[in-house]
Automatic annotation (TrEMBL):
PROSITE patterns: CS. GO terms for biological process: protein folding. It is found in: Cytoplasm. The lineage of its organism: Eukaryota, Fungi, Dikarya, Basidiomycota, Agaricomycotina. Pfam families: CS. It comes from Hebeloma cylindrosporum. This is Nuclear movement protein nudC.
């Protein structure tokens, strides 16, 4: 129960926001359901599934995969989907295959593997990429630099929980030991190291 007008307005605003978000999600789902395909994405890739008539084989299809263009259709017919891609793809790493003679799976490798796509083809309805909840990624899927950073953070966090020195503190201690070994004439017995 709201105790002041301000509290009431905040509650009402939150309820209105939630209702508006629900309405937007429902409209987005309707727009996506009306497309002649379904699609999913990870940070590095997009998978598109296009239903085709039962019995369709690869040789029955016209498929064009270019850096910024996609077209798929049955030979001699209007394309099922065709247009400019939302973002660029790595053509050499993108593929398509017929599944169970009734659907075509198009796998697109994103050129920029750190962005979410709003749509597959630019003229199709967009999704709100701020609402995407990515699946937990595996450490092995990360690039070398990112993986190193994540492993260092995990190690440092574990060391802190155990009350042990972090990787940076261990480096400093190692450097000090080397310096002491190189300069035995110096007395470090009363030195305070921070």
């Amino acid at each position: 129960m709201a105790s002041t007008i301000d509290d009431y307005d905040d509650t009402l605003a939150a309820e209105e926001r939630e209702a508006c978000n629900k309405e937007l999600r429902a409209r987005e789902q309707q727009e996506q359901a009306a497309l002649p395909y379904t699609w999913t994405q990870e940070l590095g890739e997009v998978d598109v599934i296009v239903p085709v008539p039962q019995g369709t084989r690869g040789r029955d299809l016209n498929v064009v995969l270019e850096k910024k263009k996609l077209s798929l259709g049955i030979k001699g017919q209007e394309p099922i989907m065709a247009g400019e891609l939302c973002k660029e793809i790595k053509v050499e790493d993108s593929t398509w295959t017929v599944q169970d003679n009734k659907a075509v799976l198009i796998h697109l490798e994103k050129l920029n593997q750190q962005t979410w796509w709003e749509n597959v083809l630019t003229h199709h309805p967009k999704i709100d990429t701020r609402k995407i909840e990515p699946a937990n990624s595996k450490l092995s899927e990360l690039d070398t630099e990112t993986r190193g950073m994540v492993e260092k953070m995990m190690f440092d966090n574990q060391q802190k929980q155990l009350g042990k020195p972090t990787s940076d503190e261990l480096k400093k201690m190692e450097a000090l030991k080397k310096f002491q070994a190189a300069h035995p004439e110096l007395d470090f017995s009363k030195a305070k190291i921070s």
